[in-house]
Amino acid sequence: MHKPIHYFSAVALAIALWGSPAAAQQSPIYRQGWIDFNKNGKKDIFEDPAQSVEKRVADLLSQMTLDEKTCQMATLYGYGRVLKDEMPTPEWKNKIWKDGIANIDEELNSLPFNKKAQTQWSFPYSKHAGAINTVQRWFIEETRLGIPVDFTNEAIHGLCHDRATPFCAPIGIGSTWNKALVARAGHIAGREARLLGYTNIYVPILDPARDPRWGRVVECYGEDPFLIAELGKQMTLGVQSEGVAATLKHYAVYSIPKGGRDGDARTDPHVAPREMHQIYLYPFRRVIQEAKPMGVMSSYNDWDGEPVTGSYYFLTQLLRQEFGFEGYVVSDSEAVEYLFSKHHVAADYKDAVRQAVEAGLNVRTNFTPPENYILPVREMVKEGRLSMKTIDSRVADVLRVKFKLGLFDKPYSDPKLADKGVHTEEDEAFALQLNRESLVLLKNEKETLPLDKKQLKTILVTGPLAAASTHAISRYGPSNNPVTTVLDGIRQHLGKSVNVQYAKGCDIINPGWPGTEIVPTPLDSTEQAGIAEAVAMARQSDVIIAVVGEDEKRVGESLSRTDLALPGRQLQLLQALHATGKPVVAVLINGQPLTINWEQQNLPAILEAWFPGPQGGTAIAETLFGDYNPGGRLSVTFPKSLGQIELNFPFKPGSHAGQPSSGNNGFGRTSVNGALYPFGYGLSYTTFAYSNLMVSPEKQSPQGDIQVSVEVTNTGKRKGDEVVQLYIKDKVSSVTTYVMQLRGFERITLNPGEKKTVQFTLHPDHLALLDKHMQYTVEPGEFEVLIGSSSENIQAHKSFTIVP
Predict the structure, then answer these.
(1) CB-CB neighbours of 132 under 10 Å
(2) Residue 497, Ramachandran bin (φ over 0: left; ψ between -120 and 50: alpha; else beta)
(3) Which residues participate in catalysis according to the annotation?
(4) pLDDT tens across 107-119, in order?
(5) What is residue 134's DSSP assignment?
(6) pLDDT of residue 660
(7) How far is it, in rounded angstroms, from Cα 749 to Cα 723?
(8) What UniProt keywords apply to this chain's record, in alphabetical order (predicted)?
(9) 5 falls in which pLDDT band (50, 70, 90)?
């Protein structure tokens, strides 16, 4: 799981950190193969790398005072958020962290869109690594016990650091359906974290995006728990193979606030117990058991009236006793405070703190000083309201992670390695490939795409997202990377061979939005002129590429939509362009499924690009003009109407049934049946055929595996990717199960005429259900294997039987 720790001699360590052998004389605590953290002149058990982690934790814990223990229970938010100093100052000796701190979050990372967080220490990369060493050195040398800090950071689409390697949004990562690609993304994020001095990164998000109105759909891998678990596992393994902790979020049942409302709501999920386990907890259970993450972030919502961060059931019984989690739990910001201020299950803030600690929370995080949490904990121990046994247990979990990370053996990074190993040319090429594989072709009538540049003289690129760039950078990802817009990408790709015209056409939103989604208003003269300009250019063009959708101010954290159509006047723009009779290709930049019914019915081609990374314009241009064949698949269902929501996969029998054609409420008068685009859907510039589905054995015990294989052939004229999807149907069961469930997928690349055999193994866990006693059970009976290219495009099926 973790890379072996290499122990430095005192002189070698000093040279690596401070540049000269003379620096080794600055502090006598660095010894041959160990560090005298408590400065007592002897090698204590906790300082001895040869001792077991448990012995080291117990020894250190026995030497800690109450003040030192409680300091290991809180986060200090980094410079520009809570910490006001870029570097340690003499005043730190008077701060609460004079006795240590659990972690420092987003330290000196130059957070995008936050001028207070801009710092000279974020770049070059070596300068940042040296700065983190300086902060770490203060805690090791200037506190009594010298307990190292866990430096945490966000990383959901690349490390949240100045000029780190940028990935596309998680919803795009999920649309790749490529496990190897996601594992490599984890490796890159983990390596960059380690080289820059971060030791724990908040990734992956395992929340199923079941309601497309919810603002954070853009940050999720998709709606299906199996897909999320498989990709989340690979991301976690990739990160932790680099010796950095991965912290899963947001545990639990966070992504389905009532009505999909985010912002000040973010609560009251209407989720039944069995659904909670099978949909919302499934990814967490799988990733914890199979990838052993060292961190989990507790969410600030409730479930069935019980706030998660104050819940012993969620934080101890489920997480540790059932799932086997052995890391430490950090709270989402304000989760502790909400027990008092939002959920009203605590009489005051102090009691909220007590509930969280007793429930199993290890470390409190918020954008307020750490003493706001640490001091009430100390008071309650002295008052007898919190037991020292509980405190010791919470602190031991934090120390255990720090020992496993090697912080007590090699607490400093080597700055010389950072400049060579962060955001390399190879990393940039990978990020571009990730962007390519995230693209999903939604419609391609009469092979409109790819466009043949040899046949084109003039192209109009239009739409409010054509020259936009801010969607490529977010609060939780890398900052300050140059962005290639779609317009830039097309111009660079075509060079001087084609005349590329540009007109914005309209803004992303109109005056009065989002109120105008409820009560529409007419276009004003400025809006009419903008569309008229685009139409005039369209008439002079051979083809129109319209880049439409949303930006980071329309979808994201604390944002939710009242509608899922294109916002503002974008539909009017598309309709006016379509009326010219020229072909209109729509490129969607968006973070959630959109109800693009008119667009699907009238435009010849639609390419879903999600929120691409800074190289997105290049990937989109390559795809539009045929240098790349899109192979991404939807990881979320696109509904036709808000009235259909929730419409998602997997689903129970009858829950997606259509309107009756006769009888009460019949005649199809209110009928909007089926998805606009189903889960797993996506087109290609080539075609594929399935054959020779094999399932073996045809009869198996509940404890045995089932082997499945199928042959897939590229029957078209272009090299392309197919995502082979395996679904399982449980024919008869003791409780109602889903119509079918995703239980395997592989993205493969085939040349024209090439055939590959794709193999899957179905384990007992893939067939298990939660029975009437809420126990996972593989019930005897008939199961059906369904293989295809989407949840609705099944190409082959075969049955097998589980016998008692």
Answers:
(1) 24
(2) alpha
(3) 332
(4) 999 987 788 899 9
(5) H
(6) 72
(7) 9
(8) Hydrolase, Signal
(9) very low
